[in-house]
């Protein structure tokens, strides 16, 4: 099997005969901005009506605009948003960009909230039209079609492939997308891409530590054949951290850095009480820098279902706290490997598609300051040639 071309500093190109301008890990800065299609602009008020943050809104816009351009290039009749959550991306693509969207989410509560937000946005848009008669619609508005369904990573989901009525004369042409689809859900998108109804894919992964091994990684024959290609949990978890954000925190050198030391101390207490309880999820504890280490440990024990009144060895906790600077140094060194690990995971996914004869690219679609997971894996079954360059730019 032919070895892949070297990685470009800003994208990976899978087409042979087009070498990248430099080697190394994937560089995540977006290419730039060009004033192309302005869609979903005037009257788009979801940020106000649905409590969206500016960063979240920018992520949704960047992803939605890329999907719109990819849909136009490949003649798709329907977009399927997998792991859609509260439907922010689906809502922007359908109500803002005029795409036909099926939105699939396994959590019924999130689907019900998404439907409520759809109604609120439609009401807000209607009010905006009444206040500003000069704003004209590009066409009729249709909310996303929401479906409650878990998508298993190892089995094909028939609901995912079913077209919405009415069926186009020449059959459905589906575009699969997932913005920060968690763990194996991103893998499920790739496996469904081989279905004949699917002609395009745009996937932004997330939560690499939740990937199944084997099953979720490695996917490609090439990476599976690499000696030492195994990625233990600790490396995959580290690849999910925001390198840019942490660099700023280091420069500020504020008390918030002690979170790492406190969490390490909590882990020792958990393993002493329940040795079989490994890597329990501890949701964020607010204002850690204002807490004593024993207070943090007690709150953390409660969050993982253990008795917060467990007897604590305060002397041992104080000794852990005295190692705060060393813990920060260790975490910083480990974080330097994050781009390398993410590069291997994304390259594995790209090669998995390439080995099946598909055409694939990795493109940065928004600033990593908005989200560290900003590389989108784009795939088509027909070559797009230089038309891929249209996907590298962000609309105004």
UniProtKB/TrEMBL annotation:
PANTHER family: CGI-41 METHYLTRANSFERASE, METHYLTRANSFERASE-LIKE PROTEIN 25B. The keyword Phosphoprotein does not apply. Keywords: Acetylation. Residues 1-23 are annotated as: Disordered. One of its GO terms (molecular function) is rRNA (adenine-N6,N6-)-dimethyltransferase activity. InterPro entries: Methyltranfer_dom, METTL25, rRNA_Ade_Mease_Trfase_CS, SAM-dependent_MTases_sf. It holds the Pfam family Methyltransf_32. This is Methyltransferase-like protein 25B isoform X4. Residues 65-213 form the Methyltransferase domain.
């Amino acid at each position: 099997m032919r070895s892949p071309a070297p990685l470009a500093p800003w994208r990976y190109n899978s087409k042979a005969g087009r070498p990248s301008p430099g080697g190394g890990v994937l560089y995540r800065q977006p290419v730039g901005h060009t004033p192309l299609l302005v869609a979903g602009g005037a009257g788009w008020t979801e940020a106000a009506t649905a409590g969206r943050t500016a960063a979240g809104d920018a992520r949704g816009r960047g992803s939605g605009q890329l999907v719109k351009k990819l849909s136009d290039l490949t003649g798709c009749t329907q977009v399927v948003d997998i792991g859609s959550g509260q439907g922010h991306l689906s809502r922007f693509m359908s109500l803002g960009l005029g795409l036909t969207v099926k939105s699939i989410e396994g959590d019924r509560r999130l689907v019900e909230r998404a439907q409520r937000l759809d109604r609120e946005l439609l009401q807000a848009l209607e009010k905006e039209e009444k206040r500003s008669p000069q704003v004209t619609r590009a066409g009729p508005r249709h909310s996303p079609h929401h479906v409650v369904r878990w998508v298993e990573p190892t089995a094909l989901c028939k609901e995912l492939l079913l077209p919405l009525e009415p069926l186009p004369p020449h059959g459905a042409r589906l575009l699969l997308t997932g913005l920060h689809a968690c763990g194996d859900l991103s893998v499920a998108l790739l496996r469904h891409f081989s279905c004949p109804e699917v002609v395009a894919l745009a996937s932004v992964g997330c939560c690499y530590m939740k990937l199944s091994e084997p099953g979720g990684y490695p996917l490609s024959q090439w990476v599976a054949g690499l000696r030492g290609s195994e990625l233990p949990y600790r490396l995959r978890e580290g690849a999910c951290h925001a390198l840019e954000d942490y660099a700023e925190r280091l420069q500020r050198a504020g008390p918030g850095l002690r979170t790492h030391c406190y969490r390490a101390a909590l882990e020792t207490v958990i393993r002493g009480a329940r040795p079989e309880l490994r890597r329990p999820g501890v949701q964020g504890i607010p204002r850690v820098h204002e807490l004593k280490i024993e207070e943090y440990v007690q709150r953390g024990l409660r969050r993982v279902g253990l008795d917060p009144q467990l007897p604590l060895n305060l002397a041992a906790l104080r000794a852990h706290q005295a190692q705060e600077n060393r813990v920060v140094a260790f975490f910083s060194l480990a974080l330097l490997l994050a781009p390398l690990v993410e590069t291997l995971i994304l390259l594995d996914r790209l090669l998995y598609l390439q080995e099946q004869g598909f055409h694939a690219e990795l493109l940065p679609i928004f600033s990593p300051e908005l989200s560290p997971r900003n590389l989108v894996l784009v795939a088509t079954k027909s070559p797009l040639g230089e038309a891929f360059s249209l996907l590298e730019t962000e609309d105004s």
